[in-house]
Design brief:
The protein is mainly alpha-helical. It is built from 11 helices and 3 strands, in the order H-E-H-H-E-H-H-H-E-H-H-H-H-H.
């Protein structure tokens, strides 16, 4: 390999979703619409949860945090992609790429952890209703969210420090629309054994463990519902869990589908398009799922909008 190619890369080239120049304006319009919808929908969920005293419960506290994370999640990738399309430039700086990897890891992992905490909240509410407000008091809820942030920030920083020691060839092409850790490791020009081991360990910690927690919580919930004699109680329990289960299925179904397919094949344009499902589509649909399937959220949202109209 030439000496020039051994030099540490100052930038990377993100190949995006399509090389067809005629598709770029279409992609720009679609992703701009999805991004604005995501931000508006999740902001409405946050404002509704804050403004309505009836929603000042642990369930909606976690939902507000999930909406905030979803806004940050999409902001990490989509604006940079829109700028690249508008400027007709595929280049992203080395520092900019590592920054994107860092924040993407934080927010996608926070999604995992918050969905797990929300499953635990539903488990306590259904299986231990008499002790719910004692177990899930405001201090415990705040500690749970803070603990999620602390663990994930440290793990993400650990990965970035390991990536910073790697060497990349000049003008390295990344066949994706954003910088992602797994794809970045595939284009490294130096040994990535330690990085891969740490990636597998963090996958267990940040994905497998939270998913196991969700499955365990819902196994206990189902077991409790089977023993419940009241049909009305079962219906109410299912209604509170339905939205969360829909979001969990959408997030893990699309995310795991993308990574299982990309693990068996080289990253291609198809896998990049599939990544859009869990990085863009899922955060955009979350507010609609919670607002359409939840009477409390629909009622609070209606009251918020009516107050806004009356103030004009």
């Amino acid at each position: 390999m030439e000496a020039a190619n051994q030099t540490k890369a100052s930038q990377f080239l993100l190949l995006g979703l399509s090389k067809d120049p005629d598709l770029q304006p279409v992609l720009f319009g679609i992703f701009l619409f999805m991004y604005l919808t995501t931000v508006l929908g999740n902001r409405l969920i946050i404002l509704t949860s804050i403004s309505d005293p009836r929603l000042h419960t642990p369930m909606y506290f976690f939902l507000s945090n999930l909406s905030l994370v979803d806004i940050c999640f999409t902001t990490t990738t989509i604006p940079r992609m829109l700028v690249s399309i508008q400027m007709q430039s595929q280049a992203i700086s080395y520092v900019g790429c590592l920054t994107q990897v860092y924040f993407f890891m934080i927010f996608v992992s926070l999604d995992n952890f918050l969905l797990t905490v929300m499953a635990y909240d539903r488990y306590v509410a259904i299986c231990h209703p008499l002790h719910y407000m004692v177990i899930m008091n405001p201090r415990v809820c705040a500690y749970l969210v803070l603990a999620c942030w602390q663990v994930i920030i440290l793990v993400a920083l650990w990965h970035i420090l390991l990536v910073a020691r790697l060497t990349f060839c000049m003008d390295t092409e990344i066949p994706h629309f954003f910088c992602e850790l797994a794809q970045l490791l595939k284009v490294a020009c130096s040994d990535i054994l330690i990085n891969n081991v740490c990636l597998y360990l963090s996958t267990v910690l940040l994905i497998i463990v939270p998913l196991g927690g969700i499955l365990y919580s819902y196994s206990k919930i189902v077991s409790s519902l089977v023993r419940m004699s009241s049909g009305k109680g079962k219906s109410k329990a299912f209604s509170t869990c339905g939205s969360h289960l829909s979001v969990v299925s959408l997030f893990y179904g699309t995310g795991l589908g993308v990574y299982l397919s990309s693990a068996s094949t080289h990253v291609s344009e198809k896998s990049s398009v599939a990544s859009v499902m869990y990085t863009v589509v899922t955060p955009m649909l979350n507010p609609f799922i919670y607002s359409l399937r939840n009477r409390d959220v629909k009622g609070a949202l209606g009251r918020l909008l009516s107050r806004a109209v009356s103030c004009q």
